[in-house]
Amino acid sequence: MGHHLDALVDAAATGDGVSLDGFTVSRSDDGFRLETADSTLNGLTEGGLREALADYDDYATNWYFWSEVVGESSPQRRAFLRWVEGASVDAGGDDGGDGDGDDSENDGDAASVPERYDALRDGVSREWGQLLVTVTVDDHGERSYELRHADEVDADRDDLDPYREPLAARQLATYDEKGRYRPLKTGNNLAGGWVFPDLDARDLVETVETFYPASVPNWYRERRGELDVAHWEDAIGRQTGMYSVVKTWNRGDGHEHVDWVAEACCDDSQCVKRREWQYDDDTDLDVDGGDGAFPCREPCSVVIAASRKWTRLEGEGTQTYEFELTPSEKEQVEDIIEAVADDRTDDIREGDVYEGANRYRARFLRAKLFDDEGNLGGVPTDASDDE
Amino acid sequence: MQALVIVAHGSHLNPDSSAPTYDHADTVREVGAFDEVRTGFWKEEPSIREVLRTVEADEVYVVPLFISEGYFTEQVIPRELRLEGWDVADWDSDGLSASHVTLSATDVPEKTIHYCGPVGTHAAMTDVLVRRAETVTGDPNVGEGFGLAVVGHGTERNENSAKAIEYHADRIREMDRFDEVQALYMDEEPEVDDVTDYFESEDVVVVPLFIADGFHTQEDIPEDMGLTDDYRTGYDVPAEVDGHRIWYAGAVGTEGLMADVVLERAADAGADIGNSLEVVRERTRKTPQEAN
Q: Could you tell me the keywords of this UniProt record (chain B) (predicted)?
């Protein structure tokens, strides 16, 4: 112990001195001056300052952590780490920010250092998508970060598989709970069962960024009012090659089709990012962007690839088909679509014949209504196949 | 501070697509040549659009993990990186010779971006093809009595793709190490389907010049060559076909030595990589070396 005091006394004696989170130490011709919201000490010798700092240890270790451990080489990492523990985010060198939106919970009314340390000793938790970060501080003012699945907030740590390397998150993020490949890192289907029990500040951010790439820089840019949102029109406008066809989906008659895309792909139930892109600069979509902690700045590659398919499909005209269904059969078709759309098919028990999307119920419907070519109601898809 | 950013295609369907990118990034990371090593993808995350903002260093070397110069290296990647003033003419390439260009990017105006040519056209890629043959045969001296086929897509979509295949096949031939060397294609003559027609050697190593294993290298090519009737049942290495033993290597991009090519690209663009090349060449060797 004491190295943080040496660093602090050195810093206080040079330049503008020390100033962070309502704690200032500076030197003038009269000696050192120490100031907090509650007290001011003047005319201290170096020995006197060291003695006095014993009563301000939380302030001193707090200064040391943010100035010497985290530093300012990466403003976005620093901002994220401060947000995690409820410190004011724009303090400590960030300037020019006019962070918008949800930062009132931190800025302006941030807790004093002793209050924050009291909370940190018990652990302060934040959700970031499906991640739960918990930061604690020990008696030396050193932070330790735990990262786990947010749904496992109450799980015993010993019941979870421990990991220490940030890049281990890559494998954890690759497959969902059923072992299926996740094409979208921010898909709302992150598997659990793991814990990073003791990360340092830098590794915490690396791990978070491995689970959710670019989430921290985008969140940081948003707070500073600098997020470069590319709306639907911009994003599809720059597509070339096989994706340039998506441009033809906009036919100048509204944006209902893009509402459907956003409802299908971008809903909170599907993706943990908060959709900030709209139809264009002047036209918002009619569906909600969600409540995610970090923003989505443009239609992602999954949305673009799916939209290419929808552009083709939606180019078809409608036709009238005639087949008869009982009321229960119509509802069953609806049940099946609902079950697939909500990824519930695996949850419907084999014996639960009361569920429309039950396998036996679906097989019965197929046996009854499909002809040998798989046509519903025996009605061909193309009228020309009727011959 | 200098960073390496490897950009690659990635996939919505197949985790094997990005696996080599991650493997080579890890190799470079472990050798410590760069302060940071990041990856970015066309189909995965971070997107190429957002990868530069994940970088802290001010000197950034971007290496495309692609086989040939073309649509991705010339249009998609520069556009998505938002390279200012990008002009493909600055590469002054004949389709094989793109090395690097130094630009800024509007996304991170304070950084210097060294945008490199693709790994597939670098001379060091020839050594990876040979290393792949060593790995698949388990013989660090493989060559005598063996034929080697380098397999590519063909010119259907990109004429530079065939140029890269020919280039490496010629270079391996000049080594005078294998009895025969032949370039083969999936969608044009000489076709990989007829591989045994093009070799007299009983043993033939077949190496596809692809970045990652996927549909083409795992399903198409093994079935086309007659290694198996159904890719799902797998195939033997070597497999007997028409009196030849075919040693099918799968995508060359999965070979550990690919990390060397990534480093070479960055070094050509001015990155300071110390003795990393030697370290990587040794660390990625899977066949035992003969005692001298």
A: Cobalamin biosynthesis, Cobalt, Lyase, Metal-binding
Residues B79 and B187 in one domain: no
* Nearest by CB: A170 against B11, B22, B71: B22
Q: What is this structure's pTM? A: 0.94
Bridge-partner residues for A131, per DSSP? A128, A149
d(CA B279, CA B27): 10
Nearest CA in chain A to B71: A241
Q: Residues B130, B151: one domain?
A: yes
- Residue A4: strand, helix, or coil: helix
Q: Give B30's contacts (C-beta < 8 A, 6+ positions apart).
A: B283
Please state whether the peptide bond connecting residue B190 to the residue before it is cis, i.e. omega within 30 degrees of 0. yes
Please report residues of A whose CB lies closer than 8 A to that of B22: 170
d(CA A84, CA A216): 12
DSSP letters of A150-205? GGGTTS-GGGSEE---TTHHHHHTTB-TTS-B-S-TTBS----SEEEEEE-HHHHH
Range of the domain at B229: 124-254
Q: Are residues B131 and B236 in the same domain?
A: yes
B138 token code pair = 């388990």
What tens digit of pLDDT does each residue of A222-231 get?
A: 999 999 999 9
> Residue B210 maps to which CATH number?
3.40.50.1400
Q: What was the pLDDT predicted at A91?
A: 41
Residue with tokens 């370290």: B279
CA-to-CA dists, residue A242 to A210, A238, A252, A305, A355, angstroms:
29, 12, 22, 9, 40
**Phi, psi of A4, deg, nearest 5:** -70, -30
- In A286-383, DSSP assigns E strands to 295-296
Which of B14, B47, B56 shows the shortest C-beta gap to A301? B47
- Report the domain count for chain B: 2
Nearest to B46 among A181, A183, A213 (CB): A213
N-to-C CA span, chain B? 40
Return the structure tokens found at B166: 């020919």
Q: Establish if B154 belongs to a structural domain.
A: yes
Burial readout A321-349 (b: 16 or more C-beta within 10 A, e: otherwise): eeeeeeeebeebbebbeebeeeeeeeebe
Reported as a single tens digit per residue, the pLDDT across B206-246 is: 999 999 999 899 999 999 999 999 999 999 999 999 999 99
ipTM over 0.85: yes
Q: CA nearest A271: which of A251, A294, A287?
A: A294
Q: Measuring CA to CA, how many Å separate B287 from each of B83, B141, B281?
A: 41, 9, 12
B290 lies in some domain: no
> In Å, how far is B141's CA from the nearest CA of chain A?
35
